[in-house]
Amino acid sequence: MLKDKVAIVTGATSGIGAATARLFAESGAKVMMSGRNVERGKVCMDAAREAAGEGGEAAFLAGDVADSGFCDRLVAAAVERFGRLDILVNNAGVIHRTGILETTDADWLEAMAINVNALFFLSRAAIRQMKEQGAGGAIVNVSSEWGVAGAHGHIAYGASKGAVVNFTRSLALDHAADGIRVNCLCPGEVRTPMLEGGAKSRFGDVEGGLAKLSENIPMRRISDPIEQARAIRFLASDESSYMTGSIVVNDGGNTAG
Ligand SMILES: NC(=O)c1ccc[n+]([C@@H]2O[C@H](COP(=O)([O-])OP(=O)(O)OC[C@H]3O[C@@H](n4cnc5c(N)ncnc54)[C@H](OP(=O)(O)O)[C@@H]3O)[C@@H](O)[C@H]2O)c1
Fold first, then answer.
1. What is the pLDDT of residues 149-162, one digit of tens each?
2. 256 within some domain
3. How far, in Å, is the centroid of ligand 1 from the Cα of 92?
4. Annotated catalytic residue: which of 157, 192, 222, 236?
5. How many whole angstroms from its chain centre is CA 64?
6. Are 70 and 64 in contact (CB under 8 A)?
7. What local confidence, expressed as pLDDT, does residue 106 receive?
């Protein structure tokens, strides 16, 4: 499905990003993975390499996507290693589980730096490259169900994920005529270290907390990261060739009501 495509996946050292990089490699893409944790990065890169189908490959570059210079280097590294860039998945993200009175300046700025600024830095570098190649491209931004609905008790996260939704639409309009499609995935609850951390802090233990969270989801279960990865692959591939500026919710029905 992604044969010979070159993709960057951020936040590929854990959760949704690791599953996406693996699925992309398995689908024939050459994947430049990134994250800050070198040890987990190596484990996830090895898993992607093992899954790689015909033509699939994986490499890893460690760094902080809140740093504009690193984002430029990440795009340059993908091009240097694999010769071009077709797909950018802006997936890295952080969460602060606080309302406005408990949110520090540092927390707010960190949420904006990683969840919003990084998308600007990386998309700018990617679009420069894609335009130079002249063959279009696809950008998939990972927001959240809380990008399209209020996030009770998560003020910085909710604001940042809402920004991702409208960043997607605006960027899509600017580059539709270049053949560069920009779409957004809004996951619901997904079993990753991010959600497990939330379940533990809210309910005291991970399994009990996840069971409690499941009770309130119309489908009565938490999503597996692969279910998000498949939706990301769809938005990144030619299967979604007429979609741009789309906000795709993948949440077991959470925001349907
Ligand atoms: N899990 C959910 O229920 C859920 C629901 C809706 C939306 N989402 C969104 O889905 C995306 C992935 O979340 P996840 O659940 O897979 O989270 P996760 O398991 O906590 O993984 C987050 C990833 O982001 C990377 N990252 C964070 N800050 C970074 C930085 N400054 N520079 C580079 N990489 C950074 C982490 O890399 P290192 O650890 O190596 O730094 C890690 O690979 C996020 O945007 C999140 O908001 C998740």
1. 999 999 999 999 99
2. no
3. 4
4. 157
5. 15
6. yes
7. 98
pLDDT of residue 215: 97
Nearest CA to ligand 1 atom 41: 36
For ligand 1, say whether the CB of 37 is within 6 Å of any of its atoms.
yes
Look up the domain containing 229 and give its range.
Answer: 6-188+223-250
Within a domain: 124: yes
91 lines ligand 1 (CB under 6 A): yes
User: Residue 80: pLDDT band by 50, 70, 90 thresholds?
Assistant: very high
Q: Give the type of residue at 182.
A: V
Closest ligand 1 atom, residue 95 Cα? 47
pLDDT in the model for residue 98: 97
Q: Determine the Cα–Cα distance for residues 114 and 65; give it in Å rounded to an integer.
A: 6
Nearest CA to ligand 1 atom 30: 64
Mean of the per-residue pLDDT values of the chain: 98
- CATH of residue 231: 3.40.50.720
What is the percentage of the chain residues whose pLDDT exceeds 70? 100
Rounded to whole angstroms, the Cα distance separating 129 from 136 reads 10
CA pair distance 149, 127, nearest whole angstrom: 29
Q: Relative to the CA of 113, which ligand 1 atom is closest?
A: 31
pLDDT of residue 153: 97
Ligand 1 center to 177 CA (angstroms): 31
Report the distance separating Cα 61 and Cα 34, nearest Å. Answer: 5
